[in-house]
Predict the structure.
Amino acid sequence: MSLLEVHDLTVSYTRRGRWGRPHARPAVHGVSFAVEPGEVVAVVGESGSGKTTTAQAVIGLLPPNGRLDGGRILLGGTDIAGWSQRRLQAVRGAQIGLVPQDPANSLNPVKPVGVQIGEALRIHRRGDRRTITRRVVELLERVGLPDPEVRARQYPHELSGGMRQRVLIAIAVALAPRLIIADEPTSALDVTVQKRILDLIDDLRAESGTAVLLVTHDLGVAADRSDRMVVMKDGRIEERGATRAVLGAPQAAYTARLLRDAPALRAPRFLSTEVTEAVEAVEAVEVPEAAGAARAAAATGATGPTGPTGTGAVCEPPEPAVVVHDLVKEYRAGGRPFRAVDGVSFEVPRGTTHALVGESGSGKTTTARMVMRLAEPTSGSVAIGGAETAGLRGARLRALRRDVQLVYQNPYGSLDPRQSIADIVEEPLRNFGLGDRPARRERVRELLDRVALPAAVLGRRARELSGGQRQRVAIARALAPGPRVVVLDEAVSALDVSVQAQILDLLGELQRDLGLTYLFISHDLAVVRQISHTVSVMSKGRIVETGTTRQLFENPGHAYTRALLAAVPGTAHRPAGQDGTAHRLPAREGAARRLAGQEAGR
Amino acid sequence: MRPGLILSWALIVLVALWALVPGVFTGYDPIAGIPAEKLRAPGPGHLFGTDAVGRDLFARVVHGAVNSLSGAFVAVAVGLVLGTLLGLVAGSVRGALDEIVMRVVDVLLSVPGLLLALTVIILLGPGTVNVAVAVGVGSVASFARLARSEVVRVRRTDYVEAAFGSGGRFAAVLWRHVLPNSLVPVVALAALQFGVAILAISTLGFLGYGAEPPTPEWGLLISEGRNYLATAWWLTTLPGTVVVAVVLAASRISRSIGREDG
């Protein structure tokens, strides 16, 4: 008998229409699957596919406007669909544990974490106060938190994201449930932390035989961690089966497309332009320090674009599009200075993409903002197209803005909700006084066409568009003043994989057609690998390694780079030899341990 | 649309019509009374009854709407415009200016509204317009505080930074992005403040600082009816009910505005 069997599950959400008339919108149609004891079943899908709704329905925690319309949920043979909340309370925690998505908001900020873990035990009356206290410490130790007695007395804000997620896992496993539902348990975490959390879930499962229902948008995670998977789209199951079989020979066209688009799994060829070839010719194999990186990058700029064609030419080497030298940003935190960016130097040859890679807090976004002059550097210099940007004010600063444009991570926040799309794209043209009104309108149409949006969106508001469409609008706005450099700050991180792939293709096409230079800020190595020519890896405000993308991925010099690469999900299933990257390096264990130490020290 | 909200809008529209075309709703003269018909209880002839000099109370309430409502409009306009402007400047410039403006606002907020309005009236002298201005000045502080908090929030959003990034000048970005996106809660407060202003103007009218008798004004009506509280309950109760109903309607509408985009 299966541990969990879901038959023909149908869920709908009720919304109030324009005149307050409620209407039901189905979110999940006839979904059936089973979870056997001790196995991991991944529910994979893009946003809006109904994967989270399915998980919520199983544990009886649908939002107030959600309704279970039909189907059976058999937990160990008992149908729990339609049980009252009261009856379900005996099931939750004891038989089904839940690991929620967002570690930042899932813990009560005014209670120590130990009390919150103890709550699960108290509610289900497992022992007196002394036993509970002891059990809490055991649990904290079990989920790999150092100094569990101290942690138990700490408040959530004193813990890092990874540690909070461990606490949430401790709550989920407190009563040794037979099934854990993990809803995007690592989506909000850095990739190295994600790996350790997933390892922890794996360990717990191996030890106690708990089954896991893993809800994720990340095919890489599903590929690495699940025994079987269920692929969902628009509330229906597209495909289900053993993970290996689904990934090896997908039956549904949708699964095949997802696999093609997932950057971690598609492992394309490196961008191999003349520029990178030239760079490789001159560059040292390993560049351990930032200073060396700058020198190497300088060499890149000098030989890059002219290298293959300008043999023996005596002409001046063209200026690199972006030169960043010894950039420092210092914040004062509680009286003592904190260096968010510490002596960062790099150069970006014209017409290429340079990626700044790092985990949260590495200073990559701050660096990008200083390049844009949206933040003032404490010291150091930035030159765009040979012109220093320091000290520019008023009209000269605005002139710089024509040359350098930024695309933000979150397409939901970077477009004014009250403006029409036409106004949004036209805004830079108005600001810079480029052309009269009809000419500007014409240019807006051109730009929308350029980013493959229909003219029908002109009059719409941002909220009427999908995430991918919004990001296209943001790109069109960035292109409007005719910039030479575009800074892409996690520009595809908030998008579903298939949309992500489309936007990356668009960016590549625009670069080739318009000769744009990109500074690409990302935490996602798989995406970086696809789009960039050269990469700098940042950690704690410093650049630890710089090189061409191929070099960095195939022969990473720094331990941190190796740890990052090893943590990219989906690597376990990539056919060997396709990319030649040695992902499972023995050195990664040491690096991972050191990172764990950093996490604990926070 | 909830029924309560529809009712609220209907009431506000009705009262606005009273102010615009009072003649449609009543045939009686609000000033000249018929002594023979004094102190009649509410009935078919006189919907709200009559007062001590035989004037139809309903006619006086209908004709009084224009005084009370226009006063409330002026009061809200003064508060809204001045308050939003102060909040916008303080919230977007920040620094010393922000500190100064907000400390002044703190001082204004610490003085009871009615006392503040009375102080202003003593400075300006009594009169319908002056009362309205006085009530408006009293609400500047809360408008400024709310507008500033919204401006500070919007100022930090990506789209405002993007607007500066695409070459926008300070004033243009404020006008095009910051102001429109900060206004929703401010407008909701304006609707709420409309009710409060009617109440405040009526209070000041009751205290004798507003319109001069025999002008029909809601606060003044209640004040005049006070002398007959024991014998003619309708003189205070019915105009009072109208005021309460309008204030409640404004507050209900305000709540719906706050919810729409939030």
